[in-house]
Amino acid sequence: MKIVNRCAVSVEPRQPFIDWAKQVEPDQALPLGAFEPGLYLLPEYETREEAIGLLEQGYEEIFCAELEAWSTDPATWPCPRTLALFQEWFAFRFFDLVGDQGQEPLAHYEVDESFLEDLRSVINDSSES
């Protein structure tokens, strides 16, 4: 197995986020697994303190990505999006070893509205099966 030169953090929505998402989309049927954790790659770190520091530096980008999956209108997002609010809305767990079992080289994709629509479609399709 190959190991990538990244670590990771999983971000799992807590009840305040779930309540917000239901308020933003009150008429949308939420698919099974709608609130599964997100996984974000981080630079390599040596200690938990370093991992926490990396999360403190990058939490806002992760926060916005999680919010944007539910609403592309930033006017519906909580403001200000502080570290304390992030910690209230999400539980997180660090992973210091990331293995790669894929055969294809890693690729990067820009997250835009088209990508989000495709993601929503996949989530909805998987909830129906």
The string of secondary-structure elements, in order, is: EEHEHHEEH
Largest sheet: 3 strands, antiparallel
Number of helices: 4
| Widest beta sheet: strand line-up | 3-2-4
Integer average pLDDT: 88
DSSP helix fraction: 40-55%
Rg from C-alpha positions? Answer: 16 Å
Specify the structural class. Answer: alpha+beta
- Outline the low-pLDDT stretches: none
Strand content: 15-25%
Shape: globular
Number of β-strand runs: 5
> Kindly, what is the distance between the CA atoms of the first and last residues, rounded to a whole number of angstroms?
32 Å
Please tell me the total number of domains. Answer: 1
Overall description:
- The protein is α+β, with helices and mostly antiparallel strands.
- It has one domain.
- It has four helices and five strands.
- It has a three-stranded antiparallel beta sheet. A two-stranded antiparallel sheet has the order 1-5.
- It is globular.
- The N and C termini lie far apart (32 Å).
In short:
The chain has helices at 15-24, 48-68, 83-89, 113-128, and strands at 2-3, 7-13, 38-42, 90-95, 99-100.
Entry keywords:
single chain, 129 residues, alpha+beta, 3-stranded antiparallel beta sheet, two-stranded antiparallel sheet, 4 helices, 5 strands, globular
Question: What's the SSE blueprint?
Answer:
Blueprint: E1 2-3, E2 7-13, H1 15-24, E3 38-42, H2 48-68, H3 83-89, E4 90-95, E5 99-100, H4 113-128
Antiparallel strand pairs: 1-5, 2-3, 2-4
